[in-house]
Amino acid sequence: MRAKVIAGNWKMNKDFRQTEELIDGLKKSVSFDLQGVSVILCPPFTSLELAARLVKGTPFAIGGQNMYFKDEGAFTGEIAPAMLKSVGCRYVILGHSERRQFFGETDEFINKKVKKALASGLIPIVCVGETLQQREQNITEQIVTAQVRGVLSDVSAQNAEKLILAYEPVWAIGTGRTATPQQAEDVHALIRKLLTELYGGTTAERVIIQYGGSVKADNAADLLWQPNVDGALVGGACLKADSFSAIIRAAVARK
Ligand code: PEP
Predict the structure, then answer these.
(1) Whose alpha carbon is nearest atom 3 of ligand 1?
(2) Number of domains in the chain
(3) For the segment 219-250, what is each residue's pLDDT rounded down to a tens digit?
(4) Is the pLDDT of residue 255 over 60?
(5) What is the distance between the alpha carbons of residues 84 and 89, in angstroms, rounded to a whole number?
(6) CA–CA gap between residue 48 and residue 56 (Å, rounded)
(7) Closest residue (by CA) to atom 7 of ligand 1?
(8) Whether residue 96 lies in the annotated active site
(9) Considering Cα of 11, then 94, then 39, then 213, what sign does the dihedral take?
(10) CA–CA distance, 163 with 124 (Å, rounded to integer)
(11) Residue in 215, 231, 128 with CA at minimum distance from that of residue 170
(12) 184-204: buried (b, 16+ CB within 10 Å) or exposed (e) per residue?
């Protein structure tokens, strides 16, 4: 059985002091046995080093929210994979819908970052998902298929099983409108089928596919225990220790 992975995407929230407060709160509220559930915190760049220091000796891992696909150079405002690693990151979120929507990131561009992250020893959490308009046009399958193919282009089976995919319907992100467990499962099953076509069944069965989009304490368990849902990428609800720890608990305790 695949392990569950819960990641918190803090987005552009929490300064240095607030980072300390949230991590202190999490350390207190997540005092239960995680039973193999992985928990990843993805604060803004300015808090990564502090967060990595604060989680030493805890089960939490740290991830960046983005990176560039070059090692160094004249790329003002960008962050290299080695820089993330040097402050203690093991993960990096790539291709989040906000990066696609506000910063023009394409599947081709995201694919470069995915390959670079893997080559650098970071585990990418790669986001895909359709807009509301696309869902209403009944083209979710085509959109998600094209995105998965695009972001995984030239990624070997050996590397594919290391990464995490996050299915995040854009209409569910930050809107309070969650996909139903069945809607989530349908797309996750579709992605798993596509991974089987691309890499074979053994690899496809190993890939972690998270769901993201208004996951909260009260809907987490129903989403997380769908057969092809292996965890959650959480935005708003990860900014408070009690709500994030309740989601983690839902991943640990089967109803
Ligand atoms: C996200 O930003 O990845 C996300 C899923 O946000 P929210 O949980 O707030 O919908």
Answers:
(1) 235
(2) 1
(3) 999 999 999 999 999 999 999 999 999 999 99
(4) no
(5) 5
(6) 12
(7) 235
(8) yes
(9) positive
(10) 5
(11) 128
(12) bbbbbebbbebbeebbeeebb
Strand partners, 62: 41, 89
Active-site residue, from 98, 105, 130, 168? 168
Cα–Cα distance measured from residue 122 to residue 116, given in angstroms and rounded to the nearest whole number: 9
If you search the block for the tokens 């300390």, which residue do you land on? 20
What distance in Å separates the CA atoms of residue 107 and residue 128, rounded to the nearest whole number?
A: 9
Pocket mutation for ligand 1, best pick of 42, 98, 168, 178 (most atoms within 8 Å of C-beta): 168
Distance CA 255, CA 252 (A): 9
Could you give the CA distance from residue 163 to residue 155 in angstroms, rounded to a whole number?
Answer: 10
- Whole-model pTM? 0.97
Give CA–CA dist 114/99, Å, rounded. Answer: 14
Task: Tell the residue nearest (CA) to atom 4 of ligand 1.
Answer: 235
Q: Is the CB of 169 under 6 A from ligand 1?
A: no
Tokens of 54: 């604060």
Query: What's the pLDDT band for 176 if we cut at 50, 70, 90?
Result: confident
Determine the distance separating the centroid of ligand 1 and the alpha carbon of 173, expressed in angstroms.
Answer: 5
Give residue 142 CA to ligand 1 midpoint distance, Å: 22
CATH code at position 39: 3.20.20.70
Domain boundaries, position 69: 5-253
